[in-house]
């Protein structure tokens, strides 16, 4: 029993480390945004939604909601702070229309979190509170983990891993696997189901990377298309850019929930 408790804590610590790397991955994107004083074609949607995921997962990990999940609250609390900074920077450099859209998303995020928190405290108790908060966190964890599916599609279509960085794919796999085992050891389905999905998705990305990492054929095609100014080439670039954004979101660590 003691050994299980130790392993439970160790995998939680490892999951926190992998999750932190995932949360910090978008700093490359934001360095570019700040340097160019523009959000260019980057989407602002992933950051408010990841913020919501962190808030809900962090709430679920609190002692009065679920037991032995303090590490879930730690990483998601840190993640919420980081995502909040991303949102502020994005809004600062986004065009007016995008500012308004992201602003409404932030309102949705805090209204949703406030609703879940208030209902869980004022209306529910015990297992009902845990199930309600765990389910809410799990839903957004699955959404977060599913975001890289656009990348998988692009990799298969272009036969290129240019916009699916190995490090990010590895962190998605390690983070999902760590929290999956953490959830199993703690007998917490709200953690191991979502993170099991994340682990499988990370493994799929690593398999695709191994298959296509040496494929240079499409790089030549894309270069020729760009030089020729073809519309087809431009479309590939735009879709890959969107795919890259999706991967960064997944990087936003599985909230515990997902770590949950």
Helix content: over 70%
| Helix-strand topology string | HHHHHHHHHHH
DSSP strand tally? 0
Shape: globular
Specify the structural class: mainly alpha
Distance, first to last CA: 22 Å
Biggest sheet statistics? none
Total count of helical runs of at least 4 residues: 11
Query: What is the rounded Rg?
Result: 19 Å
Low-confidence stretches: 219-240, 250-257
Percent of residues in β-strands:
under 5%
Question: Which properties best describe this structure?
Answer:
single chain; 260 residues; mainly alpha; 11 helices; 79% helix; globular
Structure summary:
This protein is an all-alpha fold and 260 residues long. 79% of the residues lie in helices and 0% in strands.
How does this structure look, described?
The chain is mainly alpha-helical. The chain has helices at residues 2-24, 27-36, 46-60, 70-93, 96-122, 126-146, 149-158, 166-185, 189-212, 217-228, 231-250. Helix 1 packs antiparallel against helix 8, helix 3 runs antiparallel to helix 4 and helix 8 runs antiparallel to helix 9 (189-212). The longest helix has 27 residues, at 96-122. It is globular and about 50 Å long.
Q: Secondary-structure blueprint of this entry?
A:
Elements: H1 2-24, H2 27-36, H3 46-60, H4 70-93, H5 96-122, H6 126-146, H7 149-158, H8 166-185, H9 189-212, H10 217-228, H11 231-250
